[in-house]
């Protein structure tokens, strides 16, 4: 089954759909596989820590930390999709991110949701 013509909320892979909603318009859930997650922990290097400390004194975006968090989020999402595919899914519903500090050495990002097998509904 291909989901390539569905435009919203999809991952880089056109045959896999990840949405934050409980359902995906235009699709029906054929089978619920269950919870899946992708987890990664990233440490901050000393340079970005010092830079962030200095930047916090004057205000503004912490671009180095922003870049690290975006990369971390993308890695967690890729791992989520990999786990769901390995279990036979072609979609994840109700995807969420959870972010927390990991033992004061880094940031833990977990992407999680419900792996499902989706089929296109007939438009009639």
TrEMBL record:
One family name in Pfam for this protein: YbjQ_1
Top-rank taxon, per record: Bacteria
InterPro entries reported in the protein's UniProt record: UPF0145_dom_sf, UPF0145_YbjQ-like
Family: Belongs to the UPF0145 family.
Protein known as: UPF0145 protein V2S66_24945
Source species of the chain: Actinacidiphila polyblastidii
